[in-house]
Amino acid sequence: MSSTDLSSLKNDSVHLSKANGAVLTYGSPTVPSPGEGEILVKNIAVASNPKDWKLSLWGLFEGIEGNDITGTVVSVGSDVTEFREGDKVGSFTRMATGDQYGAYQRYTVTPAATSWKLGNVKYEEAATLPLAVLTAVLGLFDKARLGLEEPSASGKPQGDHSKEIILIWGASSSVGSFALQLAKLAGYSVIAIAGRSGSLAKKLGADVIIDYTGKSDAQLKEDILSAEKSFGEGRQIVAAYDAVTTETTTSVLVETLGSSPALPGGRDKRITTILPSKLEGTHSSSGPSTVHLVRTNVGDSHNGSEEQKKLTSRWIRQLGAWLEEGIFKPNVVKVIPGGLAGVKEGLQLLQEGKVSGEKLVYRIDDTPAQ
Ligand SMILES: NC(=O)c1ccc[n+]([C@@H]2O[C@H](COP(=O)([O-])OP(=O)(O)OC[C@H]3O[C@@H](n4cnc5c(N)ncnc54)[C@H](OP(=O)(O)O)[C@@H]3O)[C@@H](O)[C@H]2O)c1
């Protein structure tokens, strides 16, 4: 409920479409009331994800998109007790569902379940987390994906996993750099594959870095196997998080993990991908190990099983607390000038593959007056 008259609020938004790209519209749409389990947020900083340009360009969703928001609560749905008007929050909004959930506007409706209180964290830094960090959480900890053991609430390993190596392909990306930090906090050893921003993966705790640039598939395979050997006897790659997912990454991973010695008990080596792949669902056993490829979809935070929804709801709060305590690092923030007027430029940079080791963030107040 709100003491604010929502009809008095002026909204501005960026509409994404296949025909016209990103178009800033002043004075629309009207600000909706939050429904059951939802809050209405006055946005302060929002961030872009690669899917934002893909969905509109491919005609899969046209309208107001973007899913990473931070700001202050304006109104709460009647059944929401955790948040109050004026709270500083961050949130992962519903993807490709309706204009009210889009981040590229002044006011956004979002599920309370995937929102958290910011505390003293900067809006711009918190805005780098929601979609990407929950993709990392689901990929690593969901039983249907890699199913790794989670770190404790204080950010410590719960078991001894130092002999278990997780390979993270794309460890300097937004999703990959979050997966890397979580795997390290859970106590696993990490081999990171990165390029221009490999130093970021090192800073975030990767044990070994492999530079992928200019390498053939055969060379990459060799690099992964020798990185694995460098950990010494009894230490093995047990799973891989493919935060890039191309034909190269998936086939190199399936072949490499399959060709190295089997895990104790013959259990599967799991690989999670984040884009559709021809090899999805593959149970490959051409070598001594059986490899199983399964895709992660961050949409499960809102539309998955009860267990998946509970996992992401719990983790977004945990990570919010860890940001404040400095246990967990946000992505490096790159503020695009112009607020909502900068979204077009930001999506162009992502589409052209010009974003390396950074997250593109927009300050809503930087939007020029009409
Ligand atoms: N399934 C889902 O639910 C889901 C959720 C989130 C994202 N995604 C998808 O996941 C992908 C990554 O998203 P993001 O937000 O993390 O992207 P991002 O941060 O914008 O990705 C840019 C990074 O990718 C790295 N990179 C590019 N090609 C690489 C390669 N061949 N090997 C290793 N690293 C490579 C670059 O590393 P260097 O600069 O170091 O070379 C760069 O830092 C996108 O395709 C996105 O659509 C899917």
Automatic annotation (TrEMBL):
It comes from the Eukaryota. One of its GO terms (molecular function) is oxidoreductase activity, acting on NAD(P)H. Residues 21-361 form the Enoyl reductase (ER) domain. Coiled coil: none annotated. Pfam families: ADH_N, ADH_zinc_N. This is GroES-like protein. It comes from Pseudomicrostroma glucosiphilum.
